[in-house]
Amino acid sequence: MNMKTVLILLVLALATIFALVCVLLTRGRAPSTCQHQPPEQEDPDDGQSLVFADLTPEELAQVVRYLQGNLGVQLVDASRAKPSDNCIASVDVQVPAKAEVLRFLDGGGARPRREALAVLYFGNQPDPNVTEYVVGPLPTPVYHRDVTVQKYGGKVPYHRRPVTGKEYVDINALIQRELRKAPHFLAACCESDGTDLAILTTAPRGFKSGDRVTWFVLFHSVAGTGYYLSPVGLEVLVEHGDLHVSRWRLRKVFYNDQYFASTVELEDAFESNLLEVVRIEKPQAEAVLGSMRPRRPPGSPGPLHYEPQGPRYSVRNNLVLFQAWSFAFGMSVNTGLRLFDIRHKGERVAYEISVQEALSVYGSNCPGGMSTRYFDGSFGIGRFAYELVRGLDCPYTATYVDRHYLVESETPKTNQNSLCIFEHDAALPLRRHFSDSHSLYYGGLRKNTLVIRAVSTLINYDYIWDFMFHGSGAVEVRVHATGYISSSFLHGRGTDYGNRVGPHTLGTMHLHHIHYKVDLDVDGQLNSLETQDMEYELVKDPWSMQHTIERPYLRRERLEREGEAAFLLNTPMPRYLSFAGSKPNKWGHPRSYRVQIVSFAGEHLPPSSPMERSISWGRYQLAVTRRKEEEPTSTSVYNQNDPWTPTVAFADFIDNETITNEDLVAWITVGFLHVPHAEDVPNTVTVGNGVGFFLRPYNYFDEDPSVDSPDSIYFSGEQDAGACGANPLACLPPAAACAPHLPPFRYGGFLNL
After folding, report:
1. If DSSP codes are grouped into helix, strand and coil, which group holds residue 26?
2. Count of CB atoms situated within 10 Å of the CB of 153
3. What is the mean pLDDT of residues 560-569?
4. Angle between helices 183-190 and 263-271 (to 10 degrees)
5. Could you name the active-site residues (predicted)?
6. DSSP 304-342
7. Taking CA 450 as the corner, what is the angle to CA 352 and CA 360, rounded to the nearest 5 degrees?
8. Are 650 and 359 in contact (CB under 8 A)?
9. pLDDT for the residue 30
10. Closest C-alpha among 476, 372, 433 to residue 691
11. Using an 8 Å Cβ cutoff, are 567 and 523 in contact?
């Protein structure tokens, strides 16, 4: 071997060693690229957000023990209580008065007492009623005070109470007893003896105050699928207002456009050939209408959402921190997800944003469908927010939070992982520009938002509740509807009220209207309401006086009273409507936040309806009122079962008080009309079925606050855009190697049912 060959081999060996060293060094640096980077955020005063926190299981249990030992009456567990018993219906946190909270948060005042609100049904009394107590202080209560009269002006009549699970069980038993009286009819119509039929409630329950008479719709029930699309055509009217279950009665039976006094009369009509029967085969699991079972084997996995260096937000107790944002969160058993003390760069933008009610109004030519107006708060928007499915309801790597509640039980329950928080890449620029003249450059910023989400399953429908925080300083609130449509048995002129979606199934038209409370505090607690819109003015051209031009101009107005700020549903409203503070920004304009509504609402119930006042919030797409501690919510859970004499009537909030330089609340209605169609089977899809609103800064800042985002991108034509130092996007390939450690998939959402 000559010297030249030796030198060549030596050079190759050195090159190989160098390459290996580079690889090893690169691998050695990889962990630092993938290492979790905690978010860079200032730590606010420790524990202040807990003033809004939901009750813990220990606190709930303490309240129950206190009530059992200090009310002087026998309490029966609500899960087995008869209407003639006394029981604890629910316990939730009593949020302190705003003035007291602000003294604590902003003025160095004492921490407000922690208290609970307990709702009790007193059926074992000469005057049965619903009573609400504030119990405190927690964690060791020593007092309770009756706040029912203070809140509602009098005792709450007993017939207004929501229907309990035990009451539904007893109603079901009554219906089953009555069905046994029509065996031949059931065998002919439905291939059933009645025991395999599902029973769906309607609401409200009657025609006047004091009624407790409910239509129940019967469906074929098949395990593993929704029964809501399989009506058998039979509906029954049950009177269940008496304190003694033995006195409840079946008042009316409906089948195929005929009404009967009883199931015995129905059976007699069938036996006498006086009844036209539509024979419906019992559906099989593999072919039932509305089955959600997969029809194809799994394919390759779709895109995966993950953070290469861990979450850029933090969750501490009930406090969320994300970039410039911070807020506290909670979950009311009745109204669901709610946020408090929303701040941007430490400055409060809103004191409260919360769901108030979800309303559904149905049409049909069957009695159950045509009489249905569901007020979902009375069923429990927060109570029925069950565990979220990791990787579908929320990103797999989202942060999941358990929620605790006490309803119709003496024992607290937990809906684990029922709230999720995650950062969302919308795959859309928040802002961008490509410059192709004068100088060549590109600048932009990805639209990343922080999302807090819960999903409520309210009988057939699933509502997805989102609160979203943008880098531009905007807050977005939206709700999507999915789940099963409700249906009626198709007969007669049924398609006047919807579309046929199955052999005997009418998808019944209905509207979804959602109400929100938004307590904005823009640059302080005292705000005014300003509107801006456009008009055209015809003017002569200054440079050519023989010609004219239509020039748009801005019409500005400050609204002075509540009556001016109550905008009826589906009527024109100023395109720009803002809550304005008293101080100007750098450019001399009032610091403001704009309310921008995205909605396709149906028509509100006519004012002539005897139950319209109970949902009078639905008259308005937006109403702005002075904030009052005695007007905390726009409705009441007691309105559902007595809409004719509502416990809370929102229309009374609008009494034309001045709204200039006051603490104001925006009450916002969003919604859509839904005419079910074939593509709503098996489920309504979220596409096109989302509504909500934005709270957008309007001269609140001196420039777009997202300019401070570390995610901003800028490079010029003279730079190497592929260099990591010049362009953070060029750093993504190494970061993409930071595959997340995914926790094992587990689901316990069926445990508490």
Report:
1. helix
2. 8
3. 97
4. 70
5. 376 (proton acceptor), 461 (schiff-base intermediate with substrate)
6. ----TTS-SEEEETTEEEETTEEEEEEEETTTEEEEEEE
7. 55
8. no
9. 37
10. 476
11. no
Asked whether the predicted pLDDT for residue 27 surpasses 50, the reply is no
Residue 422 · residue 448 · CB < 8 Å? no
Specify the range with the lowest mean pLDDT, choosing from 34-38, 57-61, 283-287, 598-602. Answer: 34-38
Cis-peptide, bond into residue 204, ω within 30° of zero: yes
Identity of residue 598: V
- What is the rounded distance in angstroms from the CA atom of residue 700 to the CA atom of residue 703? 9
Q: Residue 280 carries which DSSP code?
A: -
**What is the phi/psi pair of residue 708, to 5°?**
-85, 0
How, if at all, do strands 566-568 and 620-626 pair? antiparallel
Please tell me the number of Cα atoms within 13 Å of 744 on its side-chain side: 2
Of 189 and 2, the structure prediction assigns the larger pLDDT to 189
Alpha carbon distance 455, 481 (integer Å): 10
Q: Yes or no: say if 515 and 620 are a contact pair by the CB < 8 Å rule.
A: no
Distance CA 368, CA 363 (A): 9
Question: Would you call the peptide bond into 646 cis, given omega within 30 degrees of 0 as the criterion?
Answer: no
Give φ, ψ of 54 to 5 degrees. Answer: -65, 160
Q: What is the rounded CA–CA span in Å between residue 398 and residue 396?
A: 6
Confidence bin at 69 (pLDDT 50/70/90): very high
3-state class of 39 per DSSP? coil
Q: Can you count the helices (H) and strands (E) in the chain?
A: 9, 34
Residue 440, both tokens = 């060549």
Mapping DSSP onto H, E and C, the string for 669-727 reads: EEEEEECCCHHHCCCECCCCCEEEEEEEEECCCCCCHHHHCCCCEEEECCCCCCCCCCC
Helix (H, G, I), strand (E, B) or coil at 242: coil
682, pLDDT greater than 70: yes
C-alpha distances (whole Å) from 702 to each of 256, 473, 705 are 66, 12, 8
- Evaluate whether 522 touches 298 at the Cβ level (below 8 Å): no
pLDDT in tens, 107-116: 999 999 999 9
Residue in 200, 618, 628, 119 with CA at minimum distance from that of residue 383: 119
Query: Which positions ≥6 away from 538 have C-beta within 8 Å?
Result: 548, 549, 550, 551
* 708/415 Cα distance (integer angstroms): 38
Active site (catalytic) residues: 376, 461
Q: How far is CA 277 from CA 44, 219, 570, 694, in A?
A: 69, 16, 43, 52
| CA separation for the pair 644, 418 (Å, rounded) | 35
Burial degree of 621 (CB within 10 A; 0-12, 13-18, 19+): buried
Please state whether beta strands 439-458 and 461-470 pair in parallel, antiparallel, or not at all (unpaired).
antiparallel
Runs of H (alpha helix) within 359-465:
367-370
Q: What is the pLDDT of residues 611-631, one digit of tens each?
A: 999 999 999 999 999 999 999
Looking at this protein, which amino acid is placed at residue 568?
Answer: L
C-beta of residue 279 within 8 angstroms of C-beta of residue 288: no
User: What pLDDT, in 10s, does the model give residues 733-751?
Assistant: 777 777 778 888 887 887 7
**Left (φ > 0), alpha (ψ -120 to 50) or beta: where does 336 sit?**
left
> Which tens digit of pLDDT belongs to each residue from 165-194?
999 999 999 999 999 999 999 999 999 999
Residue 4 pLDDT grade (very low, low, confident, very high; cuts 50, 70, 90): low
CA distance 75 to 121: 9
**């925006």: which residue's tokens?**
666
68: DSSP letter = H
* Model confidence, pTM: 0.93
Give whole-number Cα distances, 139 to 61, 136, 151, 317, in Å.
Answer: 10, 8, 24, 17
pLDDT tens readout for residues 110-166 = 999 999 999 999 999 999 999 999 999 999 999 999 999 999 999 999 999 999 999
Instruction: Give the whole-angstrom CA distance, residue 276 versus residue 255.
Output: 9
Mean pLDDT, the chain, rounded, equals 93
